[in-house]
Design a protein that fits this description.
alpha+beta, globular
C-alpha cells in the first residue's frame, strides 16, 4: 500500500488514491476556493496601490528603463505578499507539529520566535493530547480529500473551558492551526469536511475509519498572541461544503461540456464592390 501523493491541475490540488492511482480526489481547500470572495479585487487593488505609493521613486526609475517591468512589479504585489505569508505559515505549522509531538526544538528563525512562545503557552494552558497529526482525510462517498493539522483530546470543565490538569471531561476534537491575521468563517467548511470524511490515511498508506468527534477548534496564533476557539462543524455547515463540492465539478468538468459546436454561423463579412476594386 503506497502513500497519498498530490498533484496540481488547473490551479487546484488533487489527491491520488494510494491503491488506485487513476482515482484523484480534489483537495478540500481547492473546493472551498469555489466560494465567492468579493473582497479580493479590493485587496489586490490596495496592495498594488500601497506598493506604488511606498516605492514611488523606485517605480518611476524602473518605468523609465522598463515600463513592462514596472507594471509586472506592481502587479505582483499581492502574489509576493501571499507567498511570504504562506512560507511563514508552513514553517510555523512544521514548528507546531514538532512541539506538540514533544520534540526538542532548538534555535528558530526570528520570524518564528513569537509563534514558538505562543504555541508553548497554548500547550501549557490547554495541555492537549495529540492523537493524530498531518494525516489525510479521505471521503469515498463525496470524493474529496485533505490534510488536516491535528486530532486532539482536550479536557474541558462544565463551562467548556480547558482543564490543563485533565480533571475535566475528555473531548475528541478535529483541530486546525491558523497564522493569518484573523480567523475566517470558511475554516468551519474546511473542518466539517475533514470531520465528515470516511477515513484517515496515514503516511504509509494504511487507513482507518474517521472517528466520531465531540467538536472542532481552531488555534489562531499571531505574533501578538493566541486564542483557541470552538468551530461549528454541524451537518448544516457540512451541507454548504457539499454545495461547493458540486460547484467544483461544474467548474472543472460539466461547464466544459454544455456549449456545443455552432450549427449555423455567419459566412463572413460582406465584401463590397468598392473594396474589390481597391485591391
Amino acid at each position: 500500500m503506497g502513500r497519498v501523493r498530490t498533484i496540481q491541475r488547473g490551479g487546484s490540488r488533487f489527491y491520488i488514491h494510494p491503491d488506485r492511482p487513476e482515482t484523484k480526489a480534489p483537495g478540500v481547500t481547492s473546493i472551498i476556493s469555489m466560494g465567492p470572495k468579493p473582497f479580493l479585487p479590493f485587496w489586490y487593488a490596495r496592495m498594488t496601490a500601497e506598493l506604488a505609493v511606498d516605492s514611488l521613486p523606485f517605480v518611476a526609475q524602473m518605468a523609465e528603463r522598463d515600463r513592462q517591468g514596472a507594471v509586472d512589479y506592481l502587479k505582483g504585489a499581492a502574489r509576493r505578499y501571499t507567498k511570504i505569508r504562506a512560507d511563514v505559515g508552513s514553517n510555523a505549522h512544521d514548528l507546531f507539529e514538532r512541539m506538540i509531538r514533544g520534540e526538542h526544538v532548538g534555535a528558530v528563525h526570528p520570524d518564528l520566535g513569537p509563534y514558538r512562545i505562543h504555541f508553548a503557552d497554548f500547550l501549557t494552558a490547554v495541555n492537549p493530547e495529540l492523537v493524530r497529526a498531518e494525516d489525510v482525510a479521505w471521503s469515498d462517498e463525496y470524493e474529496y480529500a485533505g490534510s488536516f493539522d491535528a486530532v486532539l483530546r482536550v479536557w474541558l470543565d462544565e463551562d467548556g473551558k480547558p482543564t490543563p490538569d485533565r480533571s475535566g471531561a475528555p473531548h475528541l476534537l478535529i483541530a486546525d492551526w491558523k497564522t493569518s491575521k484573523a480567523t475566517y468563517p470558511d475554516v468551519a467548511l474546511q473542518m466539517s469536511a475533514y470531520a465528515n470524511a470516511d477515513r484517515i490515511i496515514a503516511p504509509d498508506g494504511t487507513s482507518e475509519p474517521m472517528p466520531d468527534f465531540d467538536g472542532a477548534a481552531v488555534l489562531h496564533i499571531t505574533p501578538d498572541g493566541w486564542s483557541f476557539k470552538p468551530v461549528n462543524i454541524s451537518a448544516h455547515v457540512f451541507s454548504f461544503f457539499l454545495a461547493l463540492r458540486r460547484v467544483f465539478t461544474w467548474d472543472r468538468d460539466v461547464s466544459k461540456t454544455v456549449i456545443g459546436r455552432a450549427i449555423a454561423k455567419s459566412a463572413g463579412g460582406i465584401v463590397t464592390g468598392t473594396q474589390r476594386r481597391a485591391k
